[in-house]
Model the fold of this input.
Amino acid sequence: MGELAVPADAYYGVQTARAIQNFPISDLRFPRAFLRAMGLIKWAAAKVNGELSLLDPKLADAVMAAAREVMDGRWDREFPLDIFQTGSGTSTNMNTNEVIANRAAELLGGARGSKVVHPNDHVNLGQSSNDVIPTAIHVAAVDLIERKLIPALRRLHGALLQKAREFDGIVKIGRTHLQDATPVRLGQEFGGYARQIELGVERARHAQAVLSEVALGGTAVGTGLNAHPEFARRVLAVVSQEVGCPLREAVNHFEAQSAQDSVVQASGDLRTIAVSLMKIANDVRWLGSGPRCGLGELLLPETQPGSSIMPGKVNPVIAESVTMVAAQVIGNDVTITVGGQSGNFELLVMLPVMAYNLLQSIELLATASENFAGRCVEGLKADAERCRQSIEQSLAMCTALAPEIGYDAAARIAKEAFRTGRTVREVARAEKVLPEDRLAALLDPWRMTEPGGPVGSAGG
Done:
């Protein structure tokens, strides 16, 4: 394709320089987690190729040393390529090969660009972009989930569970359809939130499991041409040990390279976690609304002034940031789903954008969960008196009377209470629908938060 100038101080080479020209699309670049995974794969490949006597020991050691520097982030500035590039990610695979080859050559006393270490013949030995890039996506995602997402979700789960215990003695009004419903304990609500995040941890583990089967070893089209029969298995054993999670060669390389159903499925798990966070964060916002003219059952930590014009206003900003993260992750899942439909014959050709969105979703869910736990949930307090007052004023209290006096009679009491501004208890007492001791027992808010009692319709 002719000559092309490469900056003298660059570790990347001509293929990267050409891709810089070809794809001036956006400011989006592969994240650190992906570059770490690429370096790890090249490091493990050089190690195994050396052990198989396919690569001279001195070359193998130099490639491993250079690849380790890529893993550690030393040369991140040498990866300038846009996410919106060749759909296989070939440009980024060659970017990685060139950086490692030039750095390895330098470590051996050669010059950058001398090809003492060749990017294709040595660094890419036994590999193709078509199996390396999808493998790097899986490795990066599995690693990020293990190191960041699961610990963050566990912290959030622990914070919610602690609030469930702390708030268990506080009875408040339940709400369905945004209308008053029968009483619940604030701790029961938070127990529900904690269970959502506990299931979120299980979903994150499931995402890891579906991503653990990788494409390495299939080379160009899935046949394994130019790869040693033991190459993939041995490389993945090394990679698994490094990330602390088991990874294995694909059962069928044609499936692993022509589709990315596992990435689509993993993204679905992440989307579900995002939906859980959206629900919890929105409930926290609503329960903390006020402080005087809202629900006001929760007192949120004051993190920053809420308004540039209204003095003293404090907003639920941490919860709001969580809802925006959830929206982004849900949008990322749509992009990944479209990308997953783009497998044509032997190769899927939206790998870079799928990688970017999947890894961003994991990062965002992890950081938002950690921040939500530390800056909001752990500092939540309850307004027990506000909760108590709302129960007594609720017309839904009549639900407890229905099994004994009938649905129609209970509804009539509720309507009368609403019309006159009195409570259900006051109307029922005035109309002497039940003896006082029985009325007190049925309208005990705590009793309504437990199973049992008279059997009857429970409303909706």
